[in-house]
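protien #1 (seq + structre)
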Amino acid sequence: MVYENYVPVLGRILSISKGVDCCSQMMSLQTGNGIVNFMVDSETQVIDSRQLRAGMQVAAFYDSSLPVPMIFPPQYRAKMIAVLARNEQVMLNQFDSNLTATDQSLQLNVGPNTVVKTVNGQNFSCNLANRTLLVYYTMTTRSIPPQTTPRKIVVLC
């Protein structure tokens, strides 16, 4: 699966309603730029299989290479959703052999308390270098690139 076209939208879930069929839902997010709607269906990966509810802070990722309807508010098909803790951020990126993101926007310092799992929740004990990672973190240094010790890493094999 190609993750390089995935774009995150961070926000708080306002509502979840029935979608176009019994296997889909429409999720409305309140973001810093207004409301954004997402179609959540059987192909949407919800990290940790969390039950989505109104009030949750999430990062919903859509594939920027797919066409979208020109409507307001914007509506995308969610490819992946990550539930965030308070003051938490998330980054989806390819990390090199030094665990630095390809765009130099973050470097990882994996600590003893960092949880490392696969997308289906299994423990991951191999090298994290040169992989696509979904990284959950709160604080970074002011260095270039910023560094963080993530709370959790999800390896997208």
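ok now protien #2
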Amino acid sequence: MNKTALFPLLLTLTSCLFADNRLPALARQQIGVTIEYDPSYVSLKYPGGDVPQDRGVCTDVVIRAMRHLNFDLQKEVHEDMKKNFAAYPSRKNWGLKRPDKNIDHRRVPNLQTFFKRKGWSLPISQNPADYQPGDIVTCLLGDTLPHIMIVSDRKNEDGVPLIIHNIGAGTQEEDELFTHTLTGHYRPKL
């Protein structure tokens, strides 16, 4: 294989191995803008719908960061759910009979299912080195409430990556990667 043909192959392999390190900077732009935690159901335009920028939930941090990379989780999740509704927890968890473009992408269990279906799952570990900037991590708050976070490109003094999320006080960057029970580790291939 010549060098010209090898470069695109290496680029493709590299993008599969490493997280999209642009996500932390894009999520960080929401700090001071998204200042409220608001889980209200809202009718959204489709595709590209969003709640007002000053509010949202943990999933909105991920949704907004990915949109800046031209990946619309609202559209992607809705389209996959239309074709594979039984693969998602919407019927069991929320009693839905069909996909709902206004809320499905804003629910952590649906995003976990979507990420697994995309082949983005990685093992969960307690080793900080396993988490790269731009990885997405899910956990349980109080062992019952699903939560989602983006791994930052910044670390604490012990070398543990910070995370960017909205846990109740708007978008924040905090030292909470291992604070709660981890339930998922994903590396988006955008």
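DSSP finds six helices and eight strands in the chain.
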